[in-house]
């Protein structure tokens, strides 16, 4: 594998052509290509990549709160989706596993890139909004079988605190009208388009023909699949995370987002976001939590 480190991003490439690129800002994965050269993530043409605001696309990291901050409580002063996606992380290093001794790379070649964000390193303006000592290590592993992203959360302080986390993944698809999502069957979901009322997914697959903003909980299986014309395109497998959010802004909300371009781009993307967002995880001093996902692409 080759790893290129520049001042704002880290890019890794496997000899077989797979690649991943991560902005240090927010440790936001902004590109993941499979050996065919296909880009699997959607990034808005007007996404800010200069750190001026969270990236509209790729895989923003949501921590320590999902959605608008609660009216009161420890996360009430934070911006929507918390501060992890809008803070500069540090690159901690890389490790790669070469192919077996056979030399020609027996297919299990991979490279792991680690990024860190620590409470101690935050500037006062952020620390004052969530005054807890924490450590985040985000590992991005590019392999031939897919992309794995895992967030390790550690309580470095002397008091317990609670958090939510989510990987806000913008998946690229060819045509939303030919796309269905499976793996959500019979799960309960909170419908944020319908005033956060609770529903049950009755059909085995979900088609998207208007704005969708659903938090699925109580999922029966770990894999949520995106299908194109009924054929698998992308699998998102949850790792120690219970919830999956499905979001498509559709036309009106896409028009309302200044950094969403092209305006009909909602036809080429769907967010499948794995996380722990329906409730709160609690960490006592010294405790850690680890959760993430494995994504597989079929193109
Ligand atoms: O994950 C879905 C969601 O919570 C939507 O409600 C919408 O707000 C989206 O996130 C984007 O949020 P952002 O703060 O990135 O504009």
From TrEMBL:
Protein name as catalogued: Glucose-6-phosphate 1-epimerase
EC class name: isomerase
Role this protein plays: Catalyzes the interconversion between the alpha and beta anomers from at least three hexose 6-phosphate sugars (Glc6P, Gal6P, and Man6P).
Alphabetical GO biological process terms: carbohydrate metabolic process
Enzyme Commission (EC) number: 5.1.3.15
Reaction(s) the record says it catalyses: alpha-D-glucose 6-phosphate = beta-D-glucose 6-phosphate
SUPFAM superfamilies: Galactose mutarotase-like
CDD domains: D-hex-6-P-epi_like
Annotated active site: 168, 273
Domain of life according to the entry: Eukaryota
Gene3D superfamilies: 2.70.98.10
Organism: Coniosporium apollinis (strain CBS 100218) (Rock-inhabiting black yeast)
Source lineage: Eukaryota, Fungi, Dikarya, Ascomycota, Pezizomycotina
Binding annotation for substrate: 56, 80, 85
Pfam families: Aldose_epim (PF01263)
GO cellular component: cytoplasm
């Amino acid at each position: 594998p080759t790893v290129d480190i520049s001042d704002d991003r880290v890019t890794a490439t496997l000899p077989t052509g797979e690649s991943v690129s991560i902005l240090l800002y927010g440790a936001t994965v902004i590109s993941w290509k499979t050996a065919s050269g296909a880009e699997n993530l959607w990034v808005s043409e007007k996404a800010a990549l200069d750190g001026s605001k969270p990236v509209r696309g790729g895989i923003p990291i949501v921590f320590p709160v999902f959605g608008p901050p609660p009216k009161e409580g420890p996360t009430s002063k934070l911006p929507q989706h918390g501060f992890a996606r809008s803070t500069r992380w540090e690159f901690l290093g890389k490790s790669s596993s070469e192919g077996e001794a056979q030399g020609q790379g027996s297919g299990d070649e991979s490279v792991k890139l680690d990024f860190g964000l620590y409470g101690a390193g935050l500037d006062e303006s952020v620390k004052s909004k969530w005054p807890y000592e924490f450590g985040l290590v985000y590992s991005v592993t590019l392999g031939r079988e897919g992309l794995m992203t895992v967030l390790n959360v550690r309580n470095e302080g002397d008091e317990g605190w609670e958090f939510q986390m989510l990987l806000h993944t913008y998946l690229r698809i060819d045509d939303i009208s030919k796309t269905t999502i499976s793996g959500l069957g019979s799960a309960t979901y909170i419908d944020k388009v319908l005033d956060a009322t609770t529903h049950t997914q009755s059909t085995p697959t979900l088609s998207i023909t208007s704005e969708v903003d659903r938090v699925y909980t109580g999922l029966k299986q770990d894999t949520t699949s995106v299908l194109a014309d009924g054929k698998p395109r992308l699998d998102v497998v949850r790792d120690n995370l219970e919830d999956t959010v499905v979001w498509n802004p559709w036309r009106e909300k896409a028009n309302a987002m200044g950094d969403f371009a092209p305006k009909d781009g909602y036809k080429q993307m769907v967010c499948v976001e794995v996380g722990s967002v329906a409730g709160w995880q609690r960490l006592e001093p010294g405790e850690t939590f680890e959760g993430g996902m494995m994504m597989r692409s079929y193109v």
